[in-house]
Amino acid sequence: MDQTPEALALIKEDDSREAELLRTGMYWNSRDWTNASQSLRRLINEFEVEKDKALDERQGGYILNLAIALTLSGNERAVDRLRQKFGADMDNLSYKDAFRLIASPETVGLLDHRTIADKVESAQQFQEFMAAYRERVRSGNLSAVN
What we know:
Layout: H1 4-10, H2 17-29, H3 33-46, H4 57-72, H5 76-90, H6 96-103, H7 116-139
């Protein structure tokens, strides 16, 4: 509805996880990468990563999104710290290749934070299409192919 500032004002005092997810989504959709990364950090800080406990897929998704937001905001130092802190754990998740691409020290300076936004948006659209397609397959609502 293009009323992000008003929506953010409505949940300003709400510190619940749900409100933080809403903030993250609004910042992400408006391409406010700095605030998106701050919001994602708060979500990540909600779960205390125990030394001997592996990350789960949900946590890995937040970490990958944080790496993307940090890259898009041009904060290479923070991406490097994120890689050092979570890189080994991310190698055990389905996000490992994407995380390596975004957070690898070999790609620092090679990924242009001004042009990667379009690639991220394309990937999101593809993911949305696939999710809708999977749901149609599950519900049996696919039309016959002629």
